[in-house]
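Input/output pair, single chain:
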Amino acid sequence: MITINRTTKETQIELNLAINSEKPKANIETGLPFLNHMLDQLASHGGWDLSINMQADLDVDDHHGIEDVAICLGQALYKAWKAQTNKRYGQRLLPMDESLTMVAVDLCGRPYSVINLPFSMERLGGINTEMWEHFFYTFAINAQINLHINNQYFKNNHHLIEGAFKGLAYALKEALMPAETITTTKGVL
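Output:
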């Protein structure tokens, strides 16, 4: 189990993560029910035990809390993938009703993020939709992974973001599978 604690003037977060769980359990309380729902999808479909307790200045807006959860989750994932030899690459083309989203990851230590989630609403579930791209970018940078999320088409904004989280879960699940050899010609990532 990896534990990350983060305390700033804006947030206080305690996060615990265990990957490759046989019976994934999520206990998530961020004060943002829709964020809780998305993180629960990530943990459940990714096969993780994940607990997050966040106190944030949500009376200001959603930015600080979402950003800091992404920082903590990224830092925890980095520690998890560095602790074992992984298959490294993972991808998922995920249908969610009328929405279709491609997610690809590389656990490489060279962080980069390309996100295409063309929301048609400014807010969804009480959260500014611009925060989702920021969440994935911040997560990728702190996890030191290469992350691409590209929505092919959608009509329902809920399906758009939920498909992205589920696609990420399955792509990471594949990439985090133990490998018997180093997956680079350099000899080390």
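The mean pLDDT is 95. The longest strand covers residues 11-18.
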